[in-house]
Specification:
mainly alpha, Growth Hormone, Chain: A, two-stranded antiparallel ribbon, 19 helices, 2 strands, about 75% helix, globular, tripeptide transmembrane transporter activity, MFS_dom, cell membrane, peptide:proton symporter activity, Dipep/tripep_permease
Length: about 500
């Protein structure tokens, strides 16, 4: 690289946004609108897929819609591997996230067009590729604003995480209202406008706020490597296109078979990724020890996101089909709650609680819980968030749940999310081998990809098990992993080699 990490960090104005580097402010704004576009679209996506064609939907089965929603989420995070590699080796983080923003905006525009399945598939492709370029790299730029020893980094990631949830909070209300009063495509258009605002803000303010951070690849390809990868990528694309054409023409390519492929990738990719980094000659012995410490944290992250991400498919459908939304029948209020509004519960509690959690970590100082303990707490609350749904099923004969049970479930999961998610981003930056700085963030996002890839199969168990048994099964697994991670706390901490 032309510049060291120290030089890049020092090029940034280190105050200007609530005691944090000035660049955190522009990244906060960009992430807010990018997340507005994503969560606005996602709030109505599963309904759009299984709603009747006469109502403007695609007419899919509910189970298929839930599985596709999981596959979509998984692929968004899987392409983060490619985005991280391109940033590290070719483009740099800043250009990668800008190109990603353009593709995401184009994807939302495609979804706003009333052309059925073709527009839906085109939109999915553009948003998946664009998110892969943008998502890991904007987080990597956030991490690049701080020295690795800067105690503000954890708090900075919590503040950045608030932007995600502020966008996610506003989006379902606005997009859901537009969909209800007009149609699905007007709702998707609002998501496209949100992404355009993010892109415009980044182009205008990035140079003066971000300095040298992320401008160049951290481990650029040499001439020999460029020729090698050009051949590999070209060959891979030709083979992929040939496989898609053959399987489509023979009838093998269906949503069902594709979901199995995505699930297999979700399991294999992290294994390949860890092995590649661990065996690299550019990774030192200390960095290898830290990678070993990262393995149980990764597994805990997968379990947590498996539960959290089901809020957008399993719980989303549950809210519409099995929850009493007519408040007149519960409390005497003449109002029917739109099912899409439940997607704002999670970000609402995060925006409400994030400042307190951030302040708590800073206040505790040397008594701050270790990273594995924070991850364990995340698993505990996630597991309980599903197990709590057993109570109304076992104590009430009503066919429809009181919506407050869903609110409580989301609330418990949020507490776990604030323990685990910002800590995961921060520790990924801290434990990253120098040669894989951007790709380590991609690996962290792969916890979500693997979780949703597995969810593509797990959600198919809802119908045979029933919701009560399903919630108990998934919640129970999370509690078991919570106990295991508690026992591994000292080992993980020791392997982190002085990183906390």
């Amino acid at each position: 690289m032309k510049h060291t990490r120290e030089e890049m960090v020092n090029s940034v104005p280190h105050t200007g946004f609530f005691g944090h580097p000035k660049g955190l402010g522009i990244l906060f704004f960009v992430e807010f609108w990018e997340r507005f576009s994503y969560y606005g679209m996602r709030a109505i996506l599963v309904y759009y897929m299984y709603d009747k064609i006469v109502n403007g939907g695609l007419g899919m089965e509910q189970t298929t819609a839930a599985s596709i929603a999981s596959m979509y989420g998984a692929l968004i995070f899987m392409t983060g591997i490619v985005g991280g590699w391109l940033a590290d080796r070719v483009l740099g983080s800043r250009r990668s996230l800008m190109y990603g923003a353009v593709l995401i905006m184009a994807g939302h525009i495609a979804m706003s067009l009333p052309f059925g399945i073709p527009a839906f598939l085109a939109s999915m492709f553009l948003i998946i590729v664009g998110s892969g370029l943008m998502k890991p790299n904007i987080s990597n730029v956030v991490g690049g604003l701080y020295h690795k020893s800067d105690n503000r980094m954890d708090a900075g990631f919590v503040i950045f995480y608030m932007s995600v949830n502020m966008g996610a909070l506003a989006a379902p209300f606005i997009v859901g209202a537009l969909q209800k009063n007009y149609n699905y495509h007007i709702g998707f258009l609002a998501a496209a406008i949100g992404m355009a605002l993010a892109l415009l803000a980044y182009i205008i303010f990035q140079k003066r706020s971000l300095g040298l951070v992320g401008l160049e690849p951290s481990h650029p390809l040499n001439t020999e490597e460029k020729a090698k990868y050009k051949k590999v990528i070209t060959t891979s694309l030709i083979v992929l296109i040939a496989v898609l054409v053959i399987t489509y023409m023979t009838g093998i390519l269906t949503f069902g078979t594709f979901s199995i492929v995505v699930t297999v990738l979700g399991v294999l990719l992290p294994i390949i990724y860890f092995r590649t980094m661990y065996t690299s000659k550019d990774v030192t012995a200390t960095e290898k020890s830290r990678l070993l410490a990262y393995v149980p944290l990764f597994i805990a992250g997968v379990m947590f996101w498996s539960i959290q991400e089901q809020g957008a498919n399993v719980l989303s459908i549950f809210a519409k089909e099995h929850t009493q939304l007519d408040l007149n029948k519960l409390y005497g209020f003449d109002f029917i709650v739109p099912a899409a509004w439940f997607q704002s519960i999670n970000p609402f509690f995060i925006v409400l609680l994030a400042p307190f959690i951030s302040a708590l970590w800073s206040k505790l100082g040397k008594y701050n819980p270790s990273t594995p303990i924070k991850f364990a707490l995340g698993l505990l609350f996630a597991g309980v968030s599903f197990l709590i749904m057993l109570i109304p099923a076992l104590t009430s004969s009503d066919s429809l749940y009181n919506p407050l049970w869903l609110v409580l479930s989301f609330f418990l999961c949020v507490i776990g999310e604030l323990c685990l998610s910002p800590t995961g981003s921060s520790v990924s930056v801290k434990l990253a081998p120098e040669a894989f700085s951007s790709q380590m963030l991609s690996l962290w996002f792969l916890t979500n990809a693997s979780a949703q890839a597995i969810n593509a199969q797990l959600v198919k168990l809802v119908e045979p098990l029933g919701y009560t048994n399903y919630f108990g099964f998934i919640g129970g697994i999370a509690i078991v992993l919570f106990i295991i991670l508690l026992f591994m706390n000292k080992w993980v901490t020791r392997k982190m080699e002085g990183i906390h």
